[in-house]
Design a protein that fits this description.
The structure is a homodimer. Chain A is α/β, with parallel strands linked by helices. Chain A is 32% helix and 20% strand. The first copy, chain A, folds into two domains: 244 residues, Alkaline Phosphatase, subunit A (3-Layer(aba) Sandwich), CATH 3.40.720.10; 139 residues, no CATH class. An eight-stranded mixed β-sheet of chain A has the order 10-9-11-1-12-13-2-14, with helices on both faces. Chain A is globular, with a radius of gyration of 23 Å.
């Protein structure tokens, strides 16, 4: 990949506009009866027209054979090395609930759980308590101060919450308290580095105080913490690419990711049409839009081939609204493949199409996995997409003399 | 390439089985009269069927334009960076004769040679003495102890032998004694690093003692040493991929290579059918098989186009025996190209086919250099093959959340 330092030294502000449309889990596998993937089955006249006038390819989100989670897959699309920039679980949890994580904060995922009289975990989720109960319990634990460290507790969903330790000199290099099995006691949080000794001590004190506070809140009588992590220190997309980027995303985790790379996260609704409308309404204010459609991945994970086809067809209809805006670059791709046949994310490369006045068209006439094999972008690491996008938007200076 | 650290963190044990069939020197160049390469000339209905249902591509063993030796080419196929993991000549020589090289051993290749009265080399190979004579002379030199270092001498073939220095604190950073020309005296072995001073001194004492011992063994009266090296410290394939790998290989050097990456090297015969039979007989005991066919490379090096075609056709027949085993992944490729037209290894990329229930088929209908250009694997570094193989065998966890 082209280094972010090089891109930063070459990028320039210009009036051109870019839309990155990510159909989550876009890539698929052929249904045995037809030999066609979800994308090949879907009727996509508008995407096919974009593919025919643009340049296509297949991308590897992390590397050949590697099945990515959504977070590294998106980091790669934004141009960041997905292995180096891999984000801790705690951070992912909290950025997904619109929490403004500060540099230096240490965050962990938490479960409200139940332990028996011997102190052994007998339900890691305390019967999946209702989210309202979670809100109530978080309010009880929120705001403690231990050794000058402020402890913020925020509900996520059901038994899940996030806890933020805010203060000087904290480190995320501590072990989980969650034993990840029943019949075992919660573990003592231990420092994995010398500098993390105080953080471990504070985390253990927090757990002890929480146990006292939770008395009388059956079925919950304990908490489990895991995935201690800190906000990564990255340059933002504004710094690297000199873009003013906006994210149109309804699903919480991706909103959090977009915020971590410095995008403005716009308010939008849940439906595909609503997201497209939000983009159109805000089109004048930004020069880069990350538009994220979750439904295709969800259908793939459910093994619902036909629903994934339907989501893709719906996007194809809505995409005419984007074409009408005449952006300088439209890229349509997925973050990874989620074949309905596998009911899961997979390692298969992801179709990419890049449409721009300045692309050199290839022979690809339709947007499909099979057709993209012959595309002019070839098979490329997903981290290369942003530099190609920037180039086609005429936002990169010449390198060297 | 995907780093071995990342693969090690993602790999998992599973009951799926993998066969990597390496047709040594597979890639070729077209015969001018027909415009077809060896592989394109061969009748390969079974490989074509695998290609049609699988996914194909062209691989670069070391890098575009680089002609590899067999050792780096195989290391790349096993997923190791072929430049970083390049193996010293001494080590290659000794692992090819089933010698159990220990960490810390320093090994060199040796020649029995002839020097004139002035001490100048007049035959680097002493008239290629018969192998039986080599065995006899090695027995005379074997077992010396110099400065607490044990010296083991093993015959290889004709005038060639290997010498192993075994003891504490040895280093392979010493120069050759072999001047690589006649009319020059053998060189003094010199330390190339301070820590290697003792090793150089011991090597020179060994040469001096050998000269005395060899008196009266005309035409041999001296030895030449070169390629001092040590066993590399690599993680094994078992450690990286959590596989239980076996090698079915008749040619000694490849048996040694397979042992260096931790494979069980099975006893087998010299013929293609015998090798396939050995694999089939041992199929239950392992989950990864490296099956190596030497004949195509040997024919290519001899410039014998038709014999190379015949070897490929013989493999095509035998491959039905593998298909019947229904392994989860079959990969058929070469370690490098050996076009009969060049009488040598070459830099041309190597056809690869990967057949698995989980591959996304491309439009390739036959296994040939020309057809593989349009394959779904694209043009890939050979080091990427193992991560793809592991993915298609469902032996890799998801990376990140």
């Amino acid at each position: 990949m082209v280094s972010l330092d090089l891109l930063q030294s070459l990028s320039l502000v210009s009036p051109t506009k870019i839309i990155l449309l990510v159909i989550d889990g876009l890539g698929g596998l052929p249904r045995p009866e037809t030999g066609k993937t979800e994308l090949e089955t879907a009727k996509t006249p508008n995407l096919d027209r974009l593919a025919a006038s643009g340049v296509c390819g297949l991308s590897d989100p992390v590397g050949p054979g590697i099945t990515p989670g959504s977070s590294p897959a998106h980091m790669a699309l934004f141009g960041y090395d997905p292995v180096i920039s891999n984000i801790g679980r705690g951070v992912l949890e909290i950025v997904g609930i619109d929490f403004d994580l500060q540099p230096g904060d240490v965050v962990a995922r938490g479960n409200f759980c139940a332990v028996d009289k011997a102190g052994l975990v007998n339900d890691r989720r305390a019967g999946r308590i209702p989210s309202e109960k979670c809100v109530e319990l978080c309010r009880l634990l929120d705001g403690l101060v231990i050794e000058n460290v402020e402890i913020l507790v925020r509900p996520v969903r059901e038994h899940r919450f996030a806890v933020v330790f805010r203060g000087e000199g904290l480190s995320s290099e501590v072990s989980d308290s969650d034993p990840q099995q029943i019949g075992a006691p919660p573990k003592i949080v231990s420092a994995l580095a010398i500098k993390a000794a105080r953080t471990a001590r504070i985390a253990n004190q927090f757990v002890a105080q929480a146990e006292v506070i939770l008395v009388g809140h059956f079925p919950v009588n304990m908490i489990l913490l895991r995935g201690f992590s800190q906000r990564p220190v990255w340059p933002t997309m504004g710094e690297i690419y000199k873009l003013t980027p906006a994210a149109v995303v309804s699903y919480p985790m991706y909103r959090g990711l977009a915020r971590l790379v410095g995008m403005d996260v716009l308010s939008t609704g849940n439906g595909i049409e609503e997201e497209f409308r939000t983009l159109i309404q805000n089109y004048k204010k930004y020069d880069f839009f990350f538009l994220h459609i979750k439904g295709a991945d969800a259908a793939g994970e459910d093994g619902d081939f036909d629903r994934k086809v339907a989501v893709i067809e719906q996007v194809d209809q809505a995409v005419t609204g984007l074409i009408r805006l005449q952006p300088d670059v439209i890229v349509v791709t997925g973050d990874h493949s989620t074949p309905a046949l596998l009911h899961a994310h997979s390692w298969h490369p992801v179709p990419v199409l890049l449409s721009s006045h300045w692309c050199r068209p290839d022979g690809v006439k339709e947007f499909s996995e099979l057709a993209c094999i012959d595309g002019g972008l070839g098979r490329l690491p997903a981290t290369n997409i942003m530099s190609l996008v920037m180039a086609h938007a005429l936002k990169l200076k010449k390198f060297g003399a």
